[in-house]
Amino acid sequence: MGTEMLAMILAGGQGTRLGKLTKNIAKPAVPFGGRYRIIDFTLSNCINSGIKNVGVVTQYQPLTLNNHIGNGSSWGLDGIDSGVTILQPYSSSDGEKWFEGTAHAIYQNISYIDHMNPQYVLILSGDHIYKMNYDEMLEEHNANKASLSVAVIEVPYKEASRFGIMNTDENDRIIEFEEKPEEPKNNLASMGIYIFNWGRLRSVLLNSYSKDGQMLDFGKHVIPAYLEAGENVYAYRFEGYWKDVGTIDSLWEANMEFIRLENKLGMRDKSWRMFSKNTISPPHFITETASVKNSLIVDGCYVAGTVKDSILSTDVQIKSGSTIESSVIMPGATIGKNVIIRNAIIGENAIIGDDAVVYKEDEIEVIGYAEVIGVQSDED
């Protein structure tokens, strides 16, 4: 399927709702689950689905993301007939530099897509946690003789107004699209995953940008244009685990769900493995003073305190007397002595000094990248 369908991952989002965690990195590069970054799930889905060529469209703070992806070897995307290409904004002859929307980002990379010459283009987001077989979606796309297929998932009605909602007929043909409606007619939310017949999409984008250039976003502009033109647009229903981790609460919740031994992602399923580029660190060390319960501890960790219902990412240090509960400690963070951390996310390389308390009763507390709280002693 590699030459048949090209995947384009939109990974340039700033992720402002994640606050301090995305001050220095793009949202898809935010650490997740101890040894992963958010984009790992989309990249792994691609290789597990048999997609061998992937374009990653970046924009905001791309350095960490670029270094993480590298040549794609961690996902098996470095073969003779496979590859991953980082696609960053560049100055064109008409002076355009930045991607102004999802569809505009694809338009700006038409030359790359034409070079790959796919029959289908799979548009993906780089900031969701899920497992999905895109090959099955393509099979349904072809069975429906669709021009565009949109992956959808049922969400609670109380949350439906946060999403683009697809209204369908009895055959799941989309007849109406509502962008974040106040009173949604149903709860079929777009997952931001699309399969387009490339020839048709290419024509639509080129026609628009030769006139008014208004095709900036897939949800706001392209999908309504397809519906108005009478194109065959179908919903592809997804029933597995899917999490949009675009807010602090959802990121924390997804990590807490990830701790469960039988989590819905099925991370121990060897037939659909999640891959990542991992730091080579020594085995974790649990001292005799430590207590660890129901937690994930990754390589390089040193634990001399109490850890419960939490995730310690690579190279985290927890010194004696400290208590970590229901929290996510991202890579390289150091927690001093007699610290209390509850319901929190501690950013990469943060330093929490001795005797500090990181906890708020009614919200998830966040410490940012390399942020320093208090003064840390040199001794354990």
Automatic annotation (TrEMBL):
- Per UniProt, alpha-D-glucose 1-phosphate binds at G164, E179, K180, S190
EC number(s) per UniProt?
2.7.7.27
PANTHER family in the record: GLUCOSE-1-PHOSPHATE ADENYLYLTRANSFERASE, GLUCOSE-1-PHOSPHATE ADENYLYLTRANSFERASE-RELATED
Organism of derivation: Enterococcus quebecensis
Residues marked Could play a key role in the communication between the regulatory and the substrate sites (site):
Q59, W98
Q: Which NCBIfam families match?
A: glgC (TIGR02091), PRK05293.1 (NF003670)
Ordered alphabetically, the record's keywords are: ATP-binding, Carbohydrate metabolism, Glycogen biosynthesis, Glycogen metabolism, Nucleotide-binding, Nucleotidyltransferase, Transferase
* Annotated transmembrane regions: none
Looking up InterPro entries in the UniProt record yields: ADP-Glc_PPase, ADP_Glu_pyroP_CS, GlgC_bac, GlmU/GlgC-like_hexapep, NTP_transferase_dom, Nucleotide-diphossugar_trans, Trimer_LpxA-like_sf
Catalytic activity line of the entry: alpha-D-glucose 1-phosphate + ATP + H(+) = ADP-alpha-D-glucose + diphosphate
Q: Which family does it belong to?
A: Belongs to the bacterial/plant glucose-1-phosphate adenylyltransferase family.
Q: Which residues form the Nucleotidyl transferase domain?
A: 7-257
Q: Which GO terms describe its molecular function?
A: ATP binding; glucose-1-phosphate adenylyltransferase activity
Q: What is this protein called?
A: Glucose-1-phosphate adenylyltransferase
Pathways involved: Glycan biosynthesis; glycogen biosynthesis
Which GO BP terms apply?
glycogen biosynthetic process
What is the protein's quaternary organization? Homotetramer.
| CDD domains, per the entry | ADP_Glucose_PP, LbH_G1P_AT_C
Q: What positions does the domain Glucose-1-phosphate adenylyltransferase/Bifunctional protein GlmU-like C-terminal hexapeptide occupy?
A: 289-358
